[in-house]
Amino acid sequence: MSDLTLARRFPPEFVFGVATAAFQIEGAASEDGRKPSIWDAFSHMPGRVENGDTGDVACDHYHRMESDLDLIASLGVDAYRFSIAWPRVIPEGRGAINDKGLDFYERLLDGILARGLKPFATLYHWDLPLELQGRGGWTSRETAHAFAVYAEVVAKRLGDRLSSVATLNEPWCSSFLGHFTGEHAPGERNLSAFLASAHTLNLAHGLAVQAMRAVRPDTAYGIVLNAKSLHPASAGAADIAATGRFDAFHNGLFFEPLFNGRYPDGVSEALGSAMPAVTSEDLAVIRQPLDFLGINYYTPEHVAADPSLAYPAARAVPPPLGTPVTDMGWEIDAGGLSHLIRQLRSRYALPPIYITENGGAFRDACADGAVHDPERVAYLRDHLSAVADLVEGGSDVRGYFAWSLMDNFEWAWGYAKRFGLVHVDYASQERTIKDSGHWYRDLIGLRDRSGDAAA
Ligand code: IFM
Predict the structure, then answer these.
(1) Closest residue CA from atom 1 of ligand 1
(2) Active-site residues: which are they?
(3) Which of 59, 170, 183 to mutate to test the pocket of ligand 1 (most atoms within 8 A of CB)?
(4) For residue 354, which of 398, 390, 392, 393 has the smallest C-alpha distance?
(5) Residue 170 Cβ contacting ligand 1 at under 6 Å
(6) Are 271 and 263 in contact (CB under 8 A)?
(7) Among protein residues, the one whose CA lies closest to atom 4 of ligand 1
């Protein structure tokens, strides 16, 4: 299919954007009143992040915000998804508000709007104020209430400029990777802590939506989930049943309370003694009506039964040898995105969906002012084509954000993995638009904005 045909499969109002997150790009870790987050502490611990990388400087976006916004505008996108750093706004998580932090986001929003872009803000992309970690972090219900206060502060000061706010980005990562496998901050490895943090995050989301709606009822509120796109590793009954359990454990812990007001039966039965206390009031708070759901999709997973493991007695197995993968080792399969969205829509009454992240890490080399990244172009083309299939098939998918605007701090991988449409030379902070960035800009430019898109 030609790029012209692909571009014209999207309705004129479809939103094309690029995404980033505060900790991954901002740097300026201790400037203008910002205090440390759990990721500052974690990344400074030996052995936690590849190569000892930290977010101290990152892409220096805090100081280069205006030129980065020019860069975004030059890509021809409609929207910019970014996150607000809680430790800039309320440096200790609760208590004193830092006006200088809010000033930065006010300037950012003014810059976004001045360039005719739509701002899509996320309140929490993993940078919990470190002070709150000392009080139990996401395993403590106090943190949910502190988050609601932070959300209200943002709504009051920035709400007039915000059209769309997601509360949390990928709470599965904050809870599972942060509290169960320990790969992410705060690096805990404990089942009860994982389940408690998942519940606090769900509660924090609900309380924050309530708090922001009370201040700014007209803003669109939602949440961003990295739902797993799961397939049984074989047609055998054991693998099929294992996939169901795996799904409840990883996806159901978030989707069920958010959209059905309950935790999955299987999880509560199997892990009851490890589950936190959950009241019916909590469940009512969590199940707020939402204006949108953000879905981040990168790769599918194949699930096999493994009776040697604790519940869910299942594990993700690698794809067959020879399957194309990204530099993260993640299988490339655009079909996994359509499978996921169709499955979610068949299970839940969902609000309009945005694909809030999608993209690939590849080993890019910058030479003579150019970066040739044909694999990323192919990845984006295939996934956008899957999104077009969904839209044509009647799924209410309203936008797509490429992850990421530019190479950045890829969490436990530090700067070793590059997801950007724009290459960053971390020594000079020079930005170079990769071939994929040019391709994305050209595709967006080929859209039919007249309202009568050709087939
Ligand atoms: O870089 C991350 C992002 O912060 C959250 N979603 C997945 C991306 C790639 O790993």
Answers:
(1) 410
(2) 170, 357
(3) 170
(4) 398
(5) yes
(6) no
(7) 21
* Closest C-alpha to ligand 1, atom 10: 410
**Measured in angstroms, how far is the CA atom of residue 410 from the centroid of ligand 1?**
7
Q: Under a CB-based contact definition with an 8 Å cutoff, are residues 19 and 405 in contact? A: yes
Work out the burial of residue 185: count CB atoms within 10 Å of its CB; fewer than 13 is exposed, 13-18 middle, 19 or more buried: buried
Domains of the chain: 3-454 (3.20.20.80)
State which ligand 1 atom lies nearest to the alpha carbon of 359.
9
Instruction: Using the structure block, give the residue that is written with the tokens 């505060």.
Output: 22
- Give helix 61-74 / helix 99-114 axis angle, nearest 10°: 20
* One pLDDT digit (tens) per residue for the chain, 455 residues: 899 999 999 999 999 999 999 999 999 999 999 999 999 999 999 999 999 999 999 999 999 999 999 999 999 999 999 999 999 999 999 999 999 999 999 999 999 999 999 999 999 999 999 999 999 999 999 999 999 999 999 999 999 999 999 999 999 999 999 999 999 999 999 999 999 999 999 999 999 999 999 999 999 999 999 999 999 999 999 999 999 999 999 999 999 999 999 999 999 999 999 999 999 999 999 999 999 999 999 999 999 999 999 999 999 999 989 999 999 999 999 999 999 999 999 999 999 999 999 999 999 999 999 999 999 999 999 999 999 999 999 999 999 999 999 999 999 999 999 999 999 999 999 999 999 999 999 999 999 877 644 43
Q: Which residues pair with 296 in a beta bridge?
A: 357
CA of 73 to the centre of ligand 1 (A): 22
Q: In sequence order, what E strands does 139-219 have?
A: 164-169
